[in-house]
UniProtKB/TrEMBL annotation:
Heme binds at Y337. It comes from the Bacteria. GO terms for biological process: hydrogen peroxide catabolic process; response to hydrogen peroxide. The keyword Oxidoreductase applies. Its cofactor is heme. InterPro entries: Catalase, Catalase_3, Catalase_AS, Catalase_clade1/3, Catalase_core, Catalase_haem_BS, Catalase_immune_responsive, Catalase_sf. Keywords: Heme, Hydrogen peroxide, Iron, Metal-binding, Oxidoreductase, Peroxidase. GO terms for cellular component: cytoplasm. It catalyses: 2 H2O2 = O2 + 2 H2O. Belongs to the catalase family. This is Catalase. Pfam families: Catalase, Catalase-rel.
Length: 485
């Protein structure tokens, strides 16, 4: 085997990678040692800003295969034919901790999926939970501040976590979910994924439907108890990464079956609660799950930094036939992600291999910027319209229009018959077995009892009481018992 030559970034051979150049033996280092200067300077620039949330994650490539006909609901080309396969990239993540945090923690998990379709990249940036803590994006920075490290103590504080929830009754459903058995998945392979928001599908005839996505794991849902997780996190902080990497390296390719719930658009206004409220699920009895296809992961990235850390998913990357609903949280997210990417990765992040379209090419008049590698072909004009056969609009509607009414203003969502923040938390509680309920109560009480202020504890207890009388009573008793200890 021929020996590869070590070079500088400009490709020149390096003579010595063990000794810096000095003025005489034992003398100071020379400024002319280009290899040393370049090596140190480059090293200083290896880190980029981590994601402000979901900093810690793992990625994998795979494919999505359509198994059932959904052309009655969407004209999206990649869903247009049974058997059609589309390459995908997924990034799983935890939410609250920084890049170095442990995997086995109680936290929602991100489930961000990129479909490299022939009509452009479609990003579905979901979680392993069907609901979320809040329903208006203006609350998101406050919510995240309360869950991440405190600026003074430098660690997550139960006081902040529960103080936010005390002021957010709409979080009760998701808190019940998070503190229950599914709050700590055994691995990324053993959890479901949800689009969580309501999205809009439009079919070829221009008819609109509202949909919710459910990816059911074919590995079975498996979770860890708080005690198991604490032990595992201490032994192997990278337990989810290890599991995913090794499974795919062994050829044990994880898969998920995608189902959707479909609501004809005309039913939304009269539904008994706001169908665009991210803190609520649609009962399957109203809108049953309909199978769409399966997602298979079969290839690990070659380089974690290049492909996972630099991966950029944005909920506003849609393809024709799929679009946003009026869900306010989703609307806020349509702005937030690409903005984060421009800050974190730069304006040309879409040109990185993991983010660029694979089954088509991006062809537009965007030019230049830091680190540009794609700038149009030689004689291409950089303005539009032009007389030189440059790319032009299609005039084909991407998705059906959404009806709006009324005046601008900082409104609450439109009222529906049953909009209260607690009934679905109560329903989730009543679905649990006695053992599940006991673990849920112990997890909530373990956190809530550490809160210093009584008024914050009382406000949280009131939410559990409002969800279900037995739920409230048991949490209250457990918290009081721990506080008296
Ligand atoms: C990551 C904002 C709600 C799932 C992020 C990032 C931002 C953000 C700025 C970092 C993006 C990056 O640097 O690449 C927001 C805002 C929200 C919101 C403003 C509410 C208004 C949600 C919800 C979900 C979600 C409801 C799930 C249903 C994710 C996931 C990631 C992420 C999975 C990680 C994506 C990746 O792996 O690169 N979010 N988020 N977020 N968010 Fe959100």
């Amino acid at each position: 085997m021929t020996q590869r030559v070590l070079t500088t970034e400009s490709g020149a051979p390096v003579a010595d990678n063990q000794n810096s150049a000095t003025a005489g033996v034992g003398g100071p280092i020379l400024l002319q040692d280009q290899h040393l200067l370049e090596k140190l300077a480059r090293f200083n620039r290896e880190r980029i800003p981590e994601r402000v949330v979901h900093a810690r994650g793992s990625g994998a490539y795979g494919y999505f295969e359509v198994t059932d006909d959904v052309t009655g609901f969407t004209k999206a080309d990649f869903l247009g034919e049974v058997g059609k396969r589309t390459e995908t990239f997924i990034r799983f993540s935890t939410v609250a901790d920084s890049l170095g945090g442990a995997d086995a923690v109680r936290d929602p998990r991100g489930f961000a999926l990129k479909f490299y379709t022939e009509e452009g990249n479609y990003d579905l940036v979901g979680n392993n939970t069907p609901v979320f803590f809040i329903k208006d994006p203006v609350k998101f920075p406050d919510f995240i501040h309360s869950q991440k490290r405190d600026p003074f103590t430098g660690k997550q504080e139960p006081d902040n976590v529960w103080d936010f929830w005390a002021h957010a009754p709409e979080a009760t459903h998701q808190v019940t979910w998070l503190m229950g058995d599914r709050g700590i998945p055994a691995s990324y392979r053993h959890m479901n994924g949800y689009g969580s928001h309501t999205y809009q599908w439009t079919n070829a005839a221009g008819e609109a439907f509202f949909v919710k996505y459910h990816f059911k794991t074919n590995q079975g849902v498996r979770s860890l108890s708080s005690e198991q997780a604490a032990e595992l996190a201490g032994k192997d902080g990278n337990s989810h990464q290890t599991d995913l990497l090794q499974a795919i390296e062994r050829g044990v390719n994880p898969s998920w079956t995608l189902y959707v719930q479909v609501m004809p658009a005309a039913e939304a206004a009269e539904y008994r609660f706001n169908p665009f409220d991210l803190t609520k699920v649609w009962p399957h009895s109203d809108y049953p799950l309909q199978r769409v296809g399966r997602l298979v992961l079969d290839r690990n990235p070659d380089n974690v930094f290049a492909e996972v850390e630099q991966a950029a998913f944005s909920p506003n990357n849609f393809v024709p036939g799929i679009g946003p609903s009026p869900d306010k949280m989703l609307q806020g997210r349509l702005f937030a992600y690409a903005d984060a990417h421009r800050y974190r990765l730069g304006v040309n992040h879409t040109q990185l291999a993991v983010n660029a379209p694979k089954a088509t090419v991006a062809d537009n008049y965007g030019r230049d910027g830091l680190m540009a590698t794609r700038n149009g072909r030689r004689a291409d004009k950089n303005y539009e319209p032009n007389s030189y056969a440059g790319p032009a609009q299609t005039d084909a509607a991407l998705s059906a229009p959404l009806a709006v009414q009324g005046w601008t203003g900082t409104h609450e969502a439109p009222a529906h018959v049953k909009d209260d923040d607690f009934f679905q938390a109560g329903e989730l509680y009543r679905l649990m077995s006695d053992e599940e309920k006991s673990r849920l109560i112990a997890n909530i009480a373990g956190g809530l009892s550490q809160v210093n202020r009584d008024d914050v504890i009382e406000k949280n207890l009131a939410h559990f009481h409002a969800a279900d009388a037995d739920y409230g009573k048991r949490v209250e008793e457990a918290v009081r018992a721990l506080r008296e200890d």
